[in-house]
Amino acid sequence: MFAFAFLYVSSKKEIAADQRQKEEAAALKKAEEEKAQTELRRINEEKAAQAEAERKAADAAKEQKKKDDYLASLKVIRDDEAKYTADLNKYKEQIADLEKELADIRAEKEKLSRQSIDLSKAIAAAYIERQTAETEVQRYAAMVARRANESALARPPPVAPPPPAR
């Protein structure tokens, strides 16, 4: 038994040493696994952070592109508005000029119409005066002819009887 006890004690020491070595190896392995997991977690977190940063950068780039496109289209709209406003003002000036020209032409037409009417009246008055003058001349000629017929000077003297024949 002594030998058994000796073997038991020495085995116990060896078993305890082996157990300790196994525990140390397991603890070391566990520590290495934890370290590897921690490192893996850190790498995954870095990758996730990097992916998140890239996604945010991509989102920011998309947002900036959207904003730039919006501002560019807004600038195009404002440029078109300015162009159309300038055209509108130019056309308003043309309309005002044409309306003034039209008013001047209408005034000239009215003036010419009045002159035409006045000339027509003058022609009609001159025609009437000519007819009146002709009528007066004819009446005056008729009066002169009548007076001349009634005048003793206009009658030939009586014809003397022919002298008796001898």
Please describe what this structure looks like.
The protein has 166 residues and is mostly helical. It has one helix at residues 2-150. It is rod-shaped and about 240 Å long. It starts with a helix and ends in a 16-residue tail after the last helix. The mean pLDDT is 88.
Keyword list:
single chain; 166 residues; mainly alpha; 0% strand
Question: What does the secondary structure layout of this molecule look like, with pairings?
Answer:
Layout: H1 2-150
User: What is the 3D form?
Assistant: rod-shaped
Outline the biggest β-sheet.
Answer: none
> How many β-strands, per DSSP?
0
- Proportion of strand residues: under 5%
How large, in whole angstroms, is the Cα Rg? 70 Å
N-to-C SSE series?
H
- Which blocks of ≥5 consecutive residues have pLDDT under 50? none
Number of helices: 1
